[in-house]
Every structure is written in structure tokens, then in C-alpha cells.
Amino acid sequence: MTLKDSYRSGLQHIQTSPKFAPQEGGGRRPVEFPGYSVISPPWRDDSENDKFYENMEASQRQLLQLLEPGLAVSVPPESFHLTLADLIWEDAFRNACAENPNYEQQLRETIAASFQRCESLKGGPPIRWQALGIVLRTRAIGIALAPKDESAYDRIVKLRRAIYQNPNLMALGIEQQYHFTAHITLAYFGEIPPNLDRDRLSITLAEFNDKWLDNPQEIVIKRGEIRKFDDMTRYYREPDWPVLKF
Questions:
Q1: pTM of the entire predicted model
Q2: Among 36-40, 176-180, 194-198, 211-215, which is the least confidently predicted range?
């Protein structure tokens, strides 16, 4: 996914993200996109990974300088995080809450039960994932991560299974999602120019990745938390919401 040929192919399919809308005076603003995910703590709440996120912020800044103006909308660096398990969002979330006033409470209780099934994942060596380079998604661009060892991969996969195989979660209308592409989202795509030089951009992205080969960056995952979001710029929680400490 971090090779030039992958970029050349992926750039044929990029689309403007509906999570940001044009605003008067230029630029784009976040639109309402409510939901829940299980994530690592965002940078603002994860000082132990300061160095890693400082490098992500520098990469975001450098990347935006390489892209055509308006092509990408950056997300606030303080919201950088690793999504461990997507849960529910947008219309599916709105409809579920409209039908069931207790939906959010039940969702959090269900995740708490899944976390309780993960006692065997606690302790052991630190869960370390390493930044590999730029990854393109249809509506976003970020940094791809790979596990440093088998244990780091295995423990995250087991967490996801504990979440998605919980029958009470399925009863809340949340589907099992086993495909996992670990990444830190840096920006969402804005206006796609009709004359975008995709071949040149694929070369630019591939060259940008060379920095990772000589200067690997690692994130240590010590917590998994259920967080709510109202749009793609802030992820928050209350003190009594469930947490899994590895």
C-alpha cells in the first residue's frame, strides 16, 4: 500500500470527502458526522506518544505543502489517533438513537463487557506499531502502521474479535468488521481538480516515503477507549466510560 504503483492506482479513485463542506470565504469546514469508535487516546490525551505525534504533525505539514492547494483538508493534530475498531456513525447512529433512547448507554455497556473479556491481553510486552509511509484511502490520506512483532498484531486482532463477536453488539445493529488497515489519518480529500496530475503525485508520495526508511517512528498502544465524535475533528469521552489498559 506504500508503493508507487499503489498510489498510481489509488489516485484514480479518490473522492471528495463528505465529512467536510465548502465554507464561505474559501476552505472547508467539518460537517456533523456523529458516532462512536474504539480508539487509542488522541494525542491531546496521550503525552507518552508525544514524539511520535510530533513527527506525524510534521509529516502532515510537509505533505500538505506537496499537494495542490485545496486537495486535502487537514485534521487537527491534537485529534490524531489509531482507530482500533469502528462501531457506528452518521445515519445509522442517528436512527439507532431515535429508535432507542438508551442506545448510547447500551453501546458503552456492551463495549465494557467486551473489554472485560480481554484480561489475557493485559501485561506482556508493549504493543508497538511502526509508521511505514503514506496510505491512500478513497476519501482520506494518512500514515500506514505495521506491527513491530507478532504479539503486537495478535493482541489487537483479539481485541477486535472480542468486540465484534459480542452478540449484544450485533443486536445493536453493528456489523462485524474484520478488515483492519492500521493508520493515522492526516487529512481528508477536498476538491479534486479535473486536471490533477496523478502520475506526478504518485511519484511525489513515493519519494515522501523515503524518510520513513531511515527514521522509523513507533507508537506504543497502552489503552483502548470508546470515544464519541460529533465530526472528524474531536473524539471525547466521559471519565466513567470503559477503558482497556494493556
A1: 0.94
A2: 211-215
pLDDT digits (tens, 9 = 90+) for 108-162: 999 999 999 998 888 889 999 999 999 999 999 999 999 999 999 999 999 999 9
Is residue 45 within 8 A of residue 149, CB to CB? The reply is no
CATH number for 4-16+33-232: choose from 3.90.1140.10, 3.20.20.70, 3.40.50.300, 3.30.70.20: 3.90.1140.10
Whether 214 has a pLDDT exceeding 80, the answer reads: no
Residues pairing with 85 in the sheet: 38
Whether 19 shows a pLDDT value over 80: the answer reads: yes
Mean pLDDT (the chain) is 94
CB-based contact 103:97 (threshold 8 Å) = yes
